[in-house]
Design a protein that fits this description.
With 115 residues, this protein is α+β, with helices and mostly antiparallel strands. 12% of the residues lie in helices and 15% in strands. The chain is built from two helices and five strands; from the N terminus they run αββαβββ. It has a five-stranded antiparallel beta sheet with strand order 2-1-3-4-5. The structure holds zinc ion (2 copies).
């Protein structure tokens, strides 16, 4: 069965990185899997769960889950691509900080990220 890399009907899994929330972790920016809605953290974040999700599932395309950003990234080909409008919401709440979530980000977070 061919894999669907972008399914515009699937809503995002939540407002934050699934794995970080489960582990009391934190993130810098959020990415949303365009195939299944999984929300994970970006490669600058300590745990890089969006890339891990791609490696685990083979779902190749994410969209930025940051307010005001609508670009897609294709992990397989390492290129930015264009895509359709995905199911709302297309970003985390505007009052949710980056890095986030509120209360979980250490004071020295800038020393703990990937650059
Ligand atoms: Zn994460
Ligand atoms: Zn996925």
């Amino acid at each position: 069965m061919p894999q669907v890399s972008i399914d515009p009907a699937v809503p995002p899994s939540g407002t934050g990185c699934q794995e970080c929330l489960a582990a009391d972790g934190w993130w810098v920016h959020l990415r949303r899997c365009a195939a299944c809605g999984h929300v994970g953290c970006c490669d600058t974040s300590p745990e890089q769960h969006a890339t891990a999700h791609f490696r685990e599932t083979g779902h190749p395309v994410v969209q930025s889950f940051e307010p005001g950003e609508d670009w897609f990234w294709d992990y397989e080909h390492a290129v930015e691509i264009s895509g359709p409008a995905l199911a709302e919401p297309t970003s985390h709440p505007a009052d949710q900080p980056s890095p986030g979530p509120a209360g979980a980000v250490p004071d020295d977070w800038k020393h703990k990220i990937h650059r």
